[in-house]
Design a protein that fits this description.
196 residues, alpha+beta, Protein Transport Mog1p, Chain A, six-stranded antiparallel β-sheet, 8 helices, 6 strands
Amino acid sequence: MLEPDWNQERPSFSEISLFWKGDVFTNISYSNADIENVIIELEKSHVNGGCKIFCAEYIEHPTLHWFVSRNRFEELEFFEHYFKTESFRNNGIKFDLKKDKLEWEWLNPFILDGDIARTLKSGGAYEAFKGSGKEAKDLGVKFYEALFGDRYEDIELFKTYEPWSNWFYDVAWDQTWVCVDKQRSLIWAILLTDTD
């Protein structure tokens, strides 16, 4: 578990600005059937849109440690900075929100598998998962385990419905989950959209 250093002072504005001038994120490739199965099913149900998932490793740095160890990601605009990096843009998705910060909802990591199952069963504009609720839940559980194994304490989960890129269709099916694995210094982004 990533513990705060209670003797460390909060980084100053200039320290934060200097930190973001460096290379913070490095794309990580992954290959896992349980991750791919969820992507395939979400793309089947969101036929006019799609689903994408990305992973990056972030550096260990005192400025970042202060915020991440305290779960204060929004104060650092951590996710927005990730989406604006060249390494993320290389995925073909450009951050083009008309404001600097997104509105994030914190979710308990224990519910990610269920949220994936709910999204599968709810479906997109025209299609939904053809299997049972139990099958959707099983896919969600295997998806979570592929990402994090049986760890929950070091995982932070956030979600937004804002269409922060022109990749999204800006209708009812836009969703982004961001999962931070504090033990492994990884950030996962799951993007979903559809349109009627």
